[in-house]
Amino acid sequence: MDTCTLGDLLDVVGGPALRLHTAPAGRAVPVTEAVLYDGRTPLPRQPGALLLAVGVRAADAGPLVRAAAEAELAGVVVRGAGGPVEEARAHGIALLSVAEDAAWHQVHLLLASAVGARPAASSGTGLGDLFALADAIAAATGGATAVEDPRQRILAYSTVPGQPVDEDRRQGILGLQVPASAENTEQYRRLFAADRPVRLPALSGSGLPRLAMPVRAGGETLGSVWVVDAGSLAPDAEDTLVQGASTAALLLLRARAARELARHRNSDLLRRLLDGTADAPTAAERLGVAGPARVAAFVLDSAASVPDAERTALRLLDVVRLQCEARYGRHACVLLGGVVYAVLPGPGERHRKLAEDIVARAGQALRVPVRAALGEVVPGAAGLADSRADADLVLRLPATGLPVAAVDEVRARVTLLRLAEVMAERRELTAGAWRRVLDHDAAHGTEYARTLVCWFDAGCDMAGAARLLAVHPNTCRYRLRQLRQHAGVDLDDPDERLVLWLQLRTLAGISAATP
């Protein structure tokens, strides 16, 4: 089982909640536990532990940092700004900080849950212990118990036999969602405004009352615990529910931390897979990619004005991940260079519809137009780097007129774009008469380059070229004669014509539609 690292911890609870000031040993240093400092006893030797500097001002934490380094701890967490960064750097130990008004017991709960999270927990819901907790609360209080999230989804429920239940509980467990009603909304409003167990009346004539308690950690509401009250609850049911809600908070935080940690590692693995630096079979097994798949790329429309593009791109990542997980279950998405990439499994019949739905939802949620590109469907994970390259090329094309474009739909344009890149890198492929044609146009205000492209596009038919140019055929003949004379172009050589067309079309970007 993998050990949590400092980097993992920061990925899960970093940002405003936990700031890193220095990490001389790097972010890969293992973190084994979070411990509270007790000034009455010497620091024990606890390699890998993260010490919370309880009772020590940040500015006075230098001696504690030195002692922590001697005890082989991974780092020290101080409260507020002004911590001993230089001392920590000199002693090779990480220094982190939390907000000045953070409660140490809440910080300890948050960090302990994150450190205790393991990627293996993401293989299921990560909430198995909640069912055991619901059974324990039900047995202690004497009432059937359910644990919910803030959106009234049922995460776990008790299975103690013989306890009275009503139809609301049956329907909720059947759909894993509390039935919606105006009365329910009012009860939840009362519950989440309280900090102690609340007794709530039955919602219908055949229903039963409830004893409920909000589940919170660090001021954040994580859910609630509900106990059916058939009139025979234990005398200490409220105290039991308070303790149960505290345990539920720890379990919910740990499950969330495990999911975030697994998501981060899957994203990193997907990044390496798309870069072509990961072992494809191993990555495919861990990411659940089997058989045909393709890469979908989503990006904010460059033509739109986005005040905070980085934050908006992160929100786009959330939208893409949510929609992909709703369709495919556990799913890895990653944000790279402002582009959100997702692997879409299967042969591809429904990929466009999913991408169109994501583009529409993201546009509504972010109030910014979003474009998407679909790479080629490849046989397995080993080809996903190529599928990603296809999607990147599609995104780099000038506006296709479609919110979602698959590489096969714009294959000709993608091929020309790639040819332009390859040709631009080689001197011998950029030399030739095309430069003389462009130089003559620039010096004399002529349109010889576009005339050539239109003539080539018309199959070297003078009347067809004239139609594309909206001029008389004699004008085309005159221009081509001048080209032969002033630019030394040999239009009788089919190879010369082909190379000249490619250079003007790809390197100069001239087309028959150019105004």
Please provide a written account of the structure.
- The protein is an alpha/beta fold and 515 residues long.
- The protein is 47% helix and 15% strand.
- The protein contains 19 helices and 15 strands.
- It has helices at 6-13, 62-70, 85-90, 104-116, 128-141, 167-175, 182-192, 237-275, 280-287, 309-328, 351-366, 384-396, 411-424, 427-430, 433-444, 448-457, 462-469, 473-487, 494-507, and strands at 19-22, 33-36, 49-52, 75-79, 94-98, 145-148, 154-157, 198-200, 210-217, 220-228, 293-300, 333-336, 339-345, 370-374, 404-406.
- A five-stranded mixed sheet has the order 1-5-4-3-2, sandwiched between helices. A five-stranded antiparallel sheet has the order 7-6-10-9-8, with helices on both faces.
- α16 crosses α18.
- The longest helix is centred in the middle third of the chain and has 39 residues, at 237-275.
- Mean pLDDT is 84; it is low at 118-126.
Structural class: alpha/beta
Total number of beta strands = 15
Rg over alpha carbons: 32 Å
Low-confidence stretches: 118-126
Question: How much β-strand is present in the residues?
Answer: 5-15%
Helix % is 40-55%
User: Roughly what is the average pLDDT, rounded to an integer?
Assistant: 84
* Straight-line distance between termini: 63 Å
Spatial order of strands in the largest sheet: 1-5-4-3-2
How would you sum up the global shape? elongated
Q: Helix count, per DSSP?
A: 19
Largest sheet: 5 strands, mixed
